[in-house]
Each structure stands twice: as C-alpha cells, then as structure tokens.
Amino acid sequence: MSKAKQLRDRVVERGLVHIMAAHSPLSAILAEEAGFDGLWASGFELSALYGLPDVSLISMTQHLDMVRAMGEQSSLPIIADIDTGFGNAINVIHAVKQYERAGAAAIVIEDKTYPKVTSLVADGRQELLRIEEFQGKIRAAIAAKSDPDFLVIARTEALIAGLGEAEALKRASSYEDAGADMILVHSKQKTPDEVESFVRAWEGKAPVVIVPTAYPEMDEARIKALTKIAIVIYGNHAIRAAVTAMQDVFERVLRDRGIHNVNKDIVPVEEIFRLQKMDQVKADEKRFLV
Ligand code: SPV
Ligand code: MG
After folding, report:
1. What is the pLDDT of residues 114-165, one digit of tens each?
2. Is 123 designated active site?
3. ipTM for the complex shown
4. Active-site residue among 37, 54, 81, 111?
5. Which end of the chain has fewer CB atoms < 10 Å from its terminal CB, N or C?
6. How far apart are CA 112 and CA 178, in angstroms?
7. Could you tell me if 208 and 230 are in contact, meaning their C-beta atoms sit under 8 angstroms apart?
8. Cα–Cα distance, 192 to 39 (Å, whole number)
9. Is the Cβ–Cβ distance between 259 and 253 less than 8 Å?
10. Does pTM surpass 0.95?
11. Ligand 1 pocket, 81 CB below 6 A?
12. Which atom of ligand 1 is nearest to the CA of 108?
C-alpha cells in the first residue's frame, strides 16, 4: 500500500490525524516512536536547521534529499511542504514528480508569490498570487502526479496576509474547484477564533488542514468539535524542542565548567546507539565478519 493511501485511510479511520514536523531522519524516527500519524517535512524547520530564514533560500534539492532521508528511516507518510512550488506551474509539474518519486504522500502548496516570506513573522511581506494563477498551479500538480492517492493540499495565506475571511473562503473554494484534495488555512492570530470562524463558514467538501502554532489552545477536543478538520500539523515543534534542549544543556556545561551535572539529565549514549540500530551492526558482524 502506498504511503499516500496509508495517509488517506488514516484520515478516514481516525477522523483527525496528528502530524509532527521533522527536519532530519532522527527527528522522523522520534516522531514515529512517539506515535504520530505522519511527518511534516517543514520548510521552516529545514531552513532553521541550516541557520537560515524561511524565505525560499533552501533549494528544492536540499528539501527533497531530506524527504528521501526521512522516508528511509521512518514508515510514516510524509506531507511535503513545497512552499510556493519553486516557481510557476511548470516548476510545480517538475516538483510534484520529484516529490512523488522521493516517497512523499502529499504536498502542500501555498498561494504566495515566489520568493515567499515565512508566515508567522511580525510585519512579514505577504503577497498572494492571482487566484487563477494559483488554480493553474493546483491543476498542474494534479496532472503531474501518478499515484491517484497522492494528496495535493492547497494552502491559502489570505488570513496571514490580512485579507479577511471572505477572501480566504473565496480562495479555498476556487482551489477546491481546481481539484485540491484538502485546504490548509493558516493564521497567525493568537487565539483560534479566526480559524474556527473560517471552518464554520466553510461549505466546501474538501477537508481542512490547520497548523495551530500561533493559537496553541486549539487542542484535539476543540478541533474535533468543528468536524471539518482532517489533519492537524504541529509545524515547528521538533526544531523548537531541539533548540530548547540544546540551549539549556550548552549553557549548563559552561556554567558548571564541565559535563558532570548535565550528564544525568540527557539521554545516555546507549539511547543514541539504539536509535542508530547498533544492535543490527553487532548481529551483522557476528554473521558476516568471519
Ligand atoms: C512550515 O513549517 O514550514 C510551515 C508552517 O509552512 S509555518 O512556518 O507556520 O508557516
Ligand atoms: Mg513552510
């Protein structure tokens, strides 16, 4: 069964699926062990991993390589964040073929102009494409895919751009008309009101995807109460967790002038051996190093 089918089936079975951001094969392994339904190959996280802002600086090749590497270490379906699709509809055709081959189960493509500016930053330059042009990109994505279950998720940044609910609904509906399987609506309001209001007003058949980073009180109970949300993406919690942990440990090592105190508070080296599957190496040594 393809990963795309696995993701679709999971949505049907569970009603709501929980997707964790990942920026490396190791974070993908940890998300799978924790029990998430899938991985978000986040552009924001990968940009941050390279110490770069999320403004279309990471190349498609860098992102694709990471999608492949994560897929090699995790059996979870991967939703690839392809930003604006790396150019116009022609670039989207190429991208979708590449991402499908790399093992992604879905892509999310957003209606901003290229190069984009990250969504949650204060006073970000948020310019949107004409609706017709973005519809062309959605149609191009659908024409390019070969697995019928591969999901094309259209993301509107109308709320992020401050254009209001009516524009967001109009765009979502136009994107559904163009064939999008689901609609991702993003918001940077500090409360869930804006997204809840959008979802209540949404009359389309396409399920909604949300990324509640800015409005963290939107928990599962509140999401399920709206009924139309199929996927919740925890968009940057892997990289933020990693930064929190490293800042804390690095600061303590220098403050303590040694590693004697932090040692008991971080995983033992054996845990890293487990994640690296060193047992397998030992077993293979016994079998083959004669
Ligand atoms: C990402 O994780 O790259 C996203 C979500 O697109 S956000 O950064 O909130 O726009
Ligand atoms: Mg992104």
Report:
1. 999 999 999 999 999 999 999 999 999 999 999 999 999 999 999 999 999 9
2. no
3. 0.99
4. 54
5. C
6. 17
7. yes
8. 23
9. yes
10. yes
11. yes
12. 6
